[in-house]
Amino acid sequence: MISKRMTSGLRRTVTLTLTILCLAAPASFAQNTPTTSAETAKHLEHVEAGLLPAVIVKGDPHPGHSLQQRMEQLHVPGVSIAVIHHGAIEWAQGFGVVSLGGAPVTADTLFQAGSISKPVAALAALKLVQEGKLSLDTNINTELRSWKLPDAPEAKGKPVTLRELLTHTGGTTVHGFPGYASDAPVPTLVQVLNGEKPANTPAIRIATEPGTKWSYSGGGITIMQQMMIDTSNQPFPKLLHDMVLAPIGMTHSTYEQPLPAKLKPLAATPYQADGKPVPGGAHTYPEMAAAGLWTTASDLARYAIEVQRSLHGEANHVLSKETTRQMLIPSLGSWGLGVRVGGATTHPYFTHGGDDAGFEAIFVAYEEGGDGAVVMTNVQGGSLLAAEVVRSIAAEYGWPDFQPFIRTAVSVDSKIIADYVGTYQLDPERSLVFTLEDGNLVGQATGLPKVTLTPESPSEFFLPDNDTEIEFFKDAQGKVSYLVMHQKNAPDRKAMRK
Question: Do both 391 and 416 map to the same domain?
């Protein structure tokens, strides 16, 4: 249960309108007229009261919950939210507490950004490209001095480029990093790259032919970090402060690892999914470009605004309009240079999520119109709440994406459902297993927990927490032989029954 102090902390602790925010931000952020306080308060109230699930079943009279209800249900101690509207931060707000029994979260509370460190670091890498100090399309080994990426037969003679590292198409290994507990030895960056003790992740190497496949690789971004250090001859935190954080007004952010003692009183305490604090507090991430940013929701909103404005030539504190446009061109996996690009071609957005030990966050921002949002939490599993907050913001501000999916549930005889029981091979590594439990179809993908599906027709079922639909098909003899998985922004995927 959440303490009384935490419950009181759920009340609005800090509300910053654009007028207040502009006092501490570069002059360029003050060029938009702030929304009236009455309108802002109305927006905030609706967002706070209107959290929505990914799927709403038609006819459900009470599909939504308040932020306070969901924080209690999901055991989320603290949340920080910033909303961008018409190219400015309309409001930034803290909810809950920095630690159970502790002080309220404010708009200035520091959180670890996890993988959202990557798109911010990408700005600095692209700045170095813009200055001619790095190249997007040459062999990274020609620009690495302290370490070289070993060749591998899987590369088929192809070099890895910075463009491929930024788009996760370089074929490099190591998806992500767990960080190092406060009492654990911390490796150097070269030790991380080589997988040498005390590093707790394998060596970063080439596993697939560069440029042929999208595969998320924090390891690739860590190689980029070494490239930037070698090129600039500066410590990474100083390089990022000077090239990105200071120029765009991210005054409450740092890549220093571990967090300096003077900033620790401003930081939220990280929690595990079981509700216990992460032992020893926040982990240390020498993989700074991939996972090492400490920041606030407001500062990440400033990053998003800078990209939005740079794209239109209005505030090019770091990148030119041309470089920003190149950054947002999607390649394999719908990935630009450091960010994922989604949405319709007429109204695209850029986004990234983050996950460090005890911290989860997400940001999304539209290229046109100047809207977006940042949500940061201090608990493992907080991204579920963050997604619901984004949906509430999307509904309140009329975004074309991130709205709940409306489904119609029907009753299907369990005898029909029993025909779908079995294992379906999605790809060589993953399968979908369906069982009949209490008359319901229950599915489980490889490595994931079970989930109960809801029938939409005798052969179509939907998942309760995302846009996935499963449709079953029969062969000429009337036996179920395969399924097709439908998702809104992905191609259909077929899985044969084993």
Answer: no
Nearest residue to 351 via CA among 361, 363, 338 = 363
Same domain membership, residue 294 and residue 281: yes
Collapsing DSSP to helix, strand or coil, 234 comes out as coil
Distance CA 478, CA 404 (A): 35
CA-CA distance, 239 to 232, in Å (whole number)? Answer: 8
Domain boundary among 405, 430, 448: 405
Tell me: the pLDDT tens digits for 22-54?
A: 333 333 322 233 445 899 999 999 999 999 888
pLDDT for residue 10 is more than 90: no
Bridging pattern class, strands 431-437 and 294-295? unpaired
* Number of other residues whose CB lies within 10 A of the CB of residue 477: 6
Does residue 466 share a domain with residue 398?
A: no
Cα(358)–Cα(229) distance, integer angstroms: 28
Q: Which residues of 379-408 are buried (b: 16+ CB within 10 A; e: fewer)?
A: bbbbbbbbbbbbbbbbbbbebebbebbebe
Check which CATH number belongs to the domain holding 453 and give it.
2.40.128.50
Q: Is the CB of residue 456 less than 8 Å from the CB of residue 407?
A: yes
- For residue 273, the enclosing domain spans 112-405
**Separation between Cα atoms, residue 455 and residue 468, nearest integer Å:** 12
Q: Tell me the three-class secondary structure of 52-70, residue by residue.
A: CCCEEECCCCCCCECHHHH
Is residue 192 in a domain? yes
Tokens of 288: 């700074």
Residues paired with 344 in a beta bridge? 347
Q: How confident is the model at residue 397 (pLDDT cuts 50, 70, 90)?
A: very high
Q: What are the beta bridge partners of residue 210?
A: none
Instruction: Quote the CA–CA distance of 383 and 371 in Å, as a whole number.
Output: 20
Regarding whether 227 and 304 lie in a shared domain, the answer is yes
The tokens for 300 are 């990440």
pLDDT for residue 489? 66
What's the rounded Cα separation, in Å, for the pair 343 and 347?
6
Predicted confidence band of residue 388 (pLDDT cuts 50, 70, 90): very high
Specify if 69 maps to a domain.
Answer: no
Nearest alpha-carbon partner for 26 in 214, 303, 271, 260: 303
